[in-house]
C-alpha cells in the first residue's frame, strides 16, 4: 500500500524520516510532501516572558513550532548572556508540559525537562495538567494563531491560570501545488493520504481533489489525531483510521488495524 504523508521530512540519526522508516517495517511505501510553512512573530515579547520564570508556574509546548520559537529566543538571548545557567535551572524547577515525543525531544535539546509527552494530544495533555498540583501562577503557553480551544477551555474550567502568546502563524507551503502535482504524475493517485493537522487539510484539500478527480472516492484518508479527524469529517471525507498519538508507531498501528478491518469486509 502506497501512503502519502503530508508533512515535512524530519530525518533521525539514521538519516531517514522516522515515519518513512516505521511504515516500511510494516510493508507500507510512504512518500513525504510538505504542505505547511510557518512565520514567526512577537519573539521579543516571548523572550521577555522567558526571562522571568518567577512570573509563571510552568510552560506548555504543544508543537515543534512552539519549541522552535522558544529556541529562536534562546539563541538570541544566549548571545547577550541572558540565557544563563541559573535561568535554565529556574525553568527546570517548573513543569514543562509537552504533547508527543517529537516535541519532548526538541525541548530536551534546549536543556529543559518535560512532562506529559505520552499524552498524545492536547485534550489528554490538559487532563494530565489538571491532575497535577495547581500553581497560583499562570502557565506560559507559546502557540500558533490556529491553536485549538480544547486545552485552554479545559484549564479555564478547572481554574488553572494560563497566559497564551501567539508566536507563529501557519501558511501554505510555497511549493504545495507543484510538489503534489509532481507526486501524482510520478506515482498516480495514492491509495492513502495521512493528514497531520487541520491546517494541512485546509491548504491541500482543493489541490488533492483536482489531482485525484473521480478517483477521490478510492483514497483512504487517515488522521494523525482527533482534531484532524474532526476536520476531515467536517470536510465530508471518510476517516479510515486515526492514530492515537502523533508517533510513527501509532500511525503504523492505526493503518495496520484499518487494513485488517477492510480485509474482513
From TrEMBL:
Q: Which domain of life is it from?
A: Eukaryota
* Domain Tetrapyrrole biosynthesis uroporphyrinogen III synthase per the UniProt entry, residue ranges: 19-252
- Gene3D superfamilies reported in the protein's UniProt record: 3.40.50.10090
Keywords (A to Z) from UniProt: Heme biosynthesis, Lyase, Porphyrin biosynthesis
Q: Which PANTHER family match?
A: UROPORPHYRINOGEN III SYNTHASE (PTHR12390), UROPORPHYRINOGEN-III SYNTHASE (PTHR12390:SF0)
Q: What this chain does, per the record?
A: Catalyzes cyclization of the linear tetrapyrrole, hydroxymethylbilane, to the macrocyclic uroporphyrinogen III, the branch point for the various sub-pathways leading to the wide diversity of porphyrins. Porphyrins act as cofactors for a multitude of enzymes that perform a variety of processes within the cell such as methionine synthesis (vitamin B12) or oxygen transport (heme).
Question: What protein name applies here?
Answer: Uroporphyrinogen-III synthase
Amino acid at each position: 500500500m502506497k501512503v502519502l504523508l503530508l508533512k515535512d521530512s524530519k530525518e533521525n540519526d539514521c538519516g531517514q524520516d522516522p515515519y518513512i522508516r516505521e511504515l516500511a517495517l510494516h510493508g507500507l511505501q510512504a512518500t513525504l510532501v510538505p504542505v505547511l510553512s510557518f512565520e514567526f512573530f512577537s519573539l521579543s515579547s516571548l523572550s521577555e516572558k522567558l526571562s522571568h520564570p518567577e512570573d509563571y508556574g510552568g510552560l506548555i509546548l504543544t508543537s515543534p513550532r512552539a519549541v522552535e520559537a522558544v529556541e529562536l529566543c534562546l539563541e538570541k538571548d544566549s548571545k547577550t548572556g541572558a540565557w544563563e545557567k541559573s535561568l535554565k535551572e529556574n525553568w527546570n524547577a517548573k513543569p514543562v508540559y509537552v504533547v508527543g515525543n517529537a516535541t519532548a525531544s526538541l525541548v530536551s535539546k534546549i536543556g529543559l525537562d518535560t512532562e506529559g509527552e505520552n499524552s498524545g494530544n492536547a485534550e489528554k495533555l490538559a487532563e494530565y495538567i489538571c491532575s497535577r498540583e495547581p500553581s497560583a501562577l499562570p502557565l506560559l503557553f507559546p502557540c500558533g494563531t490556529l491553536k485549538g480551544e480544547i486545552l485552554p477551555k479545559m484549564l479555564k474550567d478547572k481554574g488553572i491560570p494560563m497566559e497564551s502568546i501567539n508566536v507563529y502563524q501557519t501558511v501554505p507551503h510555497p511549493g504545495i501545488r507543484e510538489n503534489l502535482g509532481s507526486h501524482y504524475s510520478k506515482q498516480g493517485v495514492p491509495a492513502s493520504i495521512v493528514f497531520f493537522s487541520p491546517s494541512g487539510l485546509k491548504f491541500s484539500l482543493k489541490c488533492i481533489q483536482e489531482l485525484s478527480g473521480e478517483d477521490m472516492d478510492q483514497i483512504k484518508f487517515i488522521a494523525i489525531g482527533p482534531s484532524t479527524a474532526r476536520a476531515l469529517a467536517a470536510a465530508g471525507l471518510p476517516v479510515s483510521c486515526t492514530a492515537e498519538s502523533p508517533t510513527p508507531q501509532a500511525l503504523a498501528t492505526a493503518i495496520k488495524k484499518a487494513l485488517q478491518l477492510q480485509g474482513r469486509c
